[in-house]
Hints:
By secondary structure, this protein is an alpha+beta fold. It has one helix at residues 79-110, and strands spanning 22-28, 34-40, 54-63, 66-73. It has a domain at 17-109. Strand 1 (22-28) and strand 2 form a beta hairpin.
Amino acid sequence: MVEDSTNxxxxxxxxxxxxxxxxxxxxxxxxxxxxxxxxxxxxxxxxDLDRPMLFVGETQIMTQMGPLPVTFEIPADNVGEAxxxxxxxxxxxVKKLMERLQEMRREAASQIVTPGMPGFQxxxxxxxxxxxxxx
Length: 135
């Protein structure tokens, strides 16, 4: 088999960042959500004390189309503090998600092409017809 050098997969940069490794532990109350406790580690697996632990909250909100996952960072120094700040961080995460959804709606609406706009080309009139084209 001949290797195709134009294959877009060959251009992908799929390499792990050895300086950015974390172990992950999940903490949950089995009711509202989960907190992923991200502990920085060195390549030998030992705790990297030069980098802070990260806390990532996850919950979901119910929508007309079903549950929508919400993921957000929790500014905290330990699990207890992350649990205390979960609610406020979740509300902020939902707010940011809603803002992003509104932005996506606006972007999608602005991509609608209408006659008279650049990029719009009406179909040619039928041969021998009046020149009117019905949608």
